[in-house]
Amino acid sequence: MKKQPVRLTNEQFIQPASSFQIYFQYINERHELHWHEFYELCFVVRGRGMNIVNGTERELRNGSLFLLTPADFHEIYSYPNEPMELYNLVFDEDLLDQELREFMFGQVAEYMVDLNATHHEIIESEFQLIRDEVQMKKPGHAILIKGAFERILLYLFRNYHDQKEQLELPVTPSPSSTLQRALVYMHHHFREPLRLEDAAKQAGLAPNYFSLVFHKMTGISFQIYLQGLRLQFAKSLLQASDIPITEICFASGFNTLTHFERAFKQKYGSSPRTFRSH
């Protein structure tokens, strides 16, 4: 049965004046479909289950490490008699410096890997270090936490590529670092009112020049690229939930239902309502 996703906010899960929060969770029931304003970095220490991300099922087991962005929605549950214990580090953009953000998100990737026993031990110790430092708050704790956090992300990045037959192609054939910053921003903020001027600012370019560079590097206009991100998200949401189509329209970043339905039919060959019923 399809579900209505719940929106989880920064205020609910991240303490004021902080950019992250770490939890150790015990999952023996289904956490229904939801999305969040923050990033979520999870590591399964014990147990088995399923993570359904943007409508796609991904099995979880001991050593599963995955990252969700504010542009993702998911539900998670454990298998019968195999409850999962996992670390869950939720954080906002402030914890990602620009270099790391570009490094991780300069290409399209859904980061989820299954670590071997050696890497499992290493990553579990990194999460434990973060948890201990948060609790004890000894001098220098912020530096240690940031280091452990960045090492986890780099392990995730490397293992993601090691476990694929070949490296994922970049979003663009050879993106400049300035355009890459804009693409990263677009992929994580497409559900919001996003103007060409906003993306150009991320790239540090004048809007008109940014528009020319964007088209040259991607082969399509800024608006077409942005609309494609929104339509893909809407398509996944139609498949995974029973949210009313009007709500999906606005949740995906469209301003009017008419525009959404016309764009969806043009891209996928049927209206959102027909697509869902098939």
From TrEMBL:
<dbReference type="Pfam" id="PF12833">
    <property type="entry name" value="HTH_18"/>
</dbReference>
<keyword id="KW-0238">DNA-binding</keyword>
<keyword id="KW-0804">Transcription</keyword>
<keyword id="KW-0805">Transcription regulation</keyword>
<dbReference type="Pfam" id="PF02311">
    <property type="entry name" value="AraC_binding"/>
</dbReference>
<dbReference type="InterPro" id="IPR018062">
    <property type="entry name" value="HTH_AraC-typ_CS"/>
</dbReference>
<dbReference type="InterPro" id="IPR037923">
    <property type="entry name" value="HTH-like"/>
</dbReference>
<dbReference type="InterPro" id="IPR018060">
    <property type="entry name" value="HTH_AraC"/>
</dbReference>
<dbReference type="InterPro" id="IPR014710">
    <property type="entry name" value="RmlC-like_jellyroll"/>
</dbReference>
<dbReference type="InterPro" id="IPR009057">
    <property type="entry name" value="Homeodomain-like_sf"/>
</dbReference>
<dbReference type="InterPro" id="IPR020449">
    <property type="entry name" value="Tscrpt_reg_AraC-type_HTH"/>
</dbReference>
<feature type="domain" description="HTH araC/xylS-type">
    <location>
        <begin position="180"/>
        <end position="278"/>
    </location>
</feature>
<protein>
    <submittedName>
        <fullName>AraC-like DNA-binding protein/mannose-6-phosphate isomerase-like protein (Cupin superfamily)</fullName>
    </submittedName>
</protein>
<dbReference type="InterPro" id="IPR003313">
    <property type="entry name" value="AraC-bd"/>
</dbReference>
